[in-house]
Amino acid sequence: MKRIVSIWIMVLAITMAATAQGNRTKFATDMYQAKHEMIIEELGLTQTQQKQFMPLYEQMEREIYQVNRNARALASEVEKKKNPTDRDYEAAASALSRTRVQEGEIESKYFEKFSKILSKKQLFQLKQAEMKFTREMLSKKKNKDNTGKKK
Predict the structure, then answer these.
(1) b/e burial code for range 118-130 (CB count within 10 A of at least 16 → b)
(2) pLDDT digit string (tens) for 106-132?
(3) Mean pLDDT over the full length of the chain
(4) Which of 51, 95, 101, 149 is deepest in the core (most CB within 10 A)?
(5) 134-42-33 Cα angle (round to 5)
(6) Distance between CA atoms of 66 and 58, rounded to whole angstroms?
(7) Distance CA 40, CA 47 (A)
(8) 43 exposed, middle or buried (CB, 10 Å; 0-12, 13-18, 19+)?
(9) Which run of H or E residues covers position 66?
(10) What is the pTM of this model?
(11) What's the pLDDT score for residue 63?
């Protein structure tokens, strides 16, 4: 659950930062590349493991991204309506709530695939690396926000 919240926060942070820069695609690509490099380093992946693992990991990220994107699109549609109905609100809220369940299902599916490539220790380190990346990104954003404020 903490990982899902962390990923959600990371996606929001990436989106906010990308919008501010005005170059969403490049920024997102750079963020994912940095995350992947950190994972490779933290897990100590061999070349063979990298070739097997990273495409699967990227596919998992795309699936999770799509689930969140679909839910956000539905919520955005409701926000744009002049007079949304209770049914509209319920559908959007339900879609947003289901994202966490869907993310967990996607992660479980890929965990089994990852376990055929990574050692038990590396599976554990993967979760640690993802959390570390999220913490570092949030810390950088916080520091960036604080440097722009007058004291």
Answers:
(1) beeebeebbeebb
(2) 999 999 999 999 999 999 999 999 999
(3) 85
(4) 95
(5) 60
(6) 12
(7) 10
(8) buried
(9) helix 47-80
(10) 0.73
(11) 95
- In Å, what is the CA distance from 127 to each residue of 3, 90, 132? 8, 33, 9
CA distances from 72 to 19, 90, 92, 93, 124 (A): 16, 14, 8, 10, 30
Give the CA count within 13 Å in the CB-facing half-sphere of 127: 15
Axis-axis angle for helices 120-147, 24-43 (nearest 10): 140
| Rounded (10°) angle between helices 120-147 and 2-21 | 40
**What's the burial of 57, exposed, middle or buried (CB within 10 Å: 0-12/13-18/19+)?**
buried
Q: What six digits make up the tokens of 96?
A: 């947003």
Distance CA 128, CA 112 (A): 18
For 37, the token pair is 């490099």
* Residue 9 vs residue 39, higher pLDDT: 39
Q: Identify residue 91 by its one-letter amino acid code.
A: A
pLDDT value at residue 68: 93
